[in-house]
Design goal:
Length: about 325
Amino acid sequence: MDGELSPNTIKAREYRVGFFVRWCEGANNNGEPRLTNLNEISGRDILRYKNWRKAGINKVTLRTQLSDLRQFLSFCTTINAVPESIVEKVELPVLERGENERETYMDHAEAMEIIDFLETYEYASLNHVLFLLTWQTGARISGLHSLDVGDIDFESERLAIRHRPDEGTRLKNGPDGERVVALPTKTINIVRDYMEVNRLPVTDDHGRKPLFTSEHGRMHKNYLPKRLYQVTRPCHYAQECPADKDPFGCEYTGAIDDAVACPHNTRPHDIRRGAITHWLRQDVPETAVSDRMNVSEKTLDRHYDQRTDTEKAEQRRQYLDDL
């Protein structure tokens, strides 16, 4: 099943198919495992699993997990591990229009408040540079994690996002995710100050000089989102807590792992979605946004663009009024 999939994708699929394995190993009414031999799997087993799994999850999650199960069973047919007809028995839930589209995203005004706070109180810190680049480039965590000192071109005021799987970093879309992104002069100067003062001067296991570092080398990819969860809590950038909690006694303001659980922080992907929406609202052509953020125009329109139909109509008006 591996093919050309990234390790993260493989791990995610193993996790989702793992629910089916757990169901198979669970006890039936006789106290025995439900299924011990895939050669004996039937459509009834698939239906029983589907009914078992759908408890407590939404339709989108159920569809994703059943889709991965279908792919797994399709592979199994190629090695005669399951009946050939079993793949057809895995029926995916039909999603209504809009059901698979998230509506949460970071508002431009909120992003500016965070940037202003970080510029004032955490200038040129790792948190400052990480959030600034996340918002201005719309890059995924894998892209930010891959950045080296040498990827920053101060003279041309650009950064390069590169796919280097043999050197410890890979992009979600592989080589297709590579791109060069222009940055404002102010941002370039902040990155320069971070590198000169606050970046730990270390190399990673491949001899590269990461932009985001820890004492052990390149900062772990799973730690970067935690930093973003931390700085997007309202109390972190001096805003009132929506739950009216005292930051000094709140359970979400201790260790960095506590910040992840805060219900009022912002997911890294929602920062990306907010950045994309902001660029579109500024009337930047979809093709340019697509190239900068490394997302197809079809996916951009369906999953990232949070403009209302009225906003889109009014933006089109300026091009059509004189026709």
